[in-house]
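Standup notes, protein team

Yesterday: finished cleaning the Metabacillus arenae set.
Today: Carbohydrate ABC transporter permease structure.
Blockers: none.

Input for Carbohydrate ABC transporter permease:
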Amino acid sequence: MKKRQKVILYSFLTLFSLVMFYPFLHMLSATFKSNEEIFSGIGLIPNEFSFSGFINGWAGMGDNTFGVFLMNSFKLVIPTVIFTIISSVVVAYGFARFNFPLKKLLFTIMLATLMLPQAVVIVPRYLLFNKLGWLDTYLPFYMPAIFATFPFFTYMLIQFIRGIPKELDEAATLDGCNSFTILTRIHLPLLKPAMFSVGIFQFIWVWNDFFNPLIYINSVDKYPLALGLRLFMDAEGSIVWNEVMAMSIVTIIPCVLLFFFAQRYFVEGISSSGLKG
């Protein structure tokens, strides 16, 4: 009886996963189809395979190839991720291990910003960055990351550091280590899973971000992938959907590869930081 129940359960889960996975398969198959064939049915196998979607899509729009947008995304995302990890670790270490005036108040304010919608701060941020002359550059992404303005990551790392026994800090102090040495030699090796989690989250969020680059970046030659992909739908005339689908596949590949290669650290970081359900 139990064996039959397992067969039914696994069959249902397999069928459900195929239904959920079908949109991605349809997008993948659409890259090899013509516009007419894409909208002619729901079949996944093209009548005639064509790689024109990848070839023409990579050629991009105007003077900018899709490779330019890809490199712009890396220029935008990688420094932002690195700065986020470093600043979040430093701030989290301070909250988790030190006592200082107004600590509880500052911690409460930090948590309160988690509930602050981005729409509330987008106008003052734009005015500030405009006065500083940072518009049409990547500084509106770098500088907030340098100053640890992502409270979700800070809170996650605080929870992780609180799980590290304080006896390790005390033993290191007896050996002559100062606070900075304790952070670099004791905590950072133990924080590796949590830092991987922060890096994966931030990479995916910034990589897929459309709204903020649209607000702060004006030059087409500085567009990341999200804005570059939108150009295919702004072109005059009909939209060539196989090119849009092909470049969408190219866009999601880095996120998928990052998640699969760092999945072990990601799961370990989440389960050890107090954020698990």
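Follow-up from PR in the comments: The chain has a mean pLDDT of 86.
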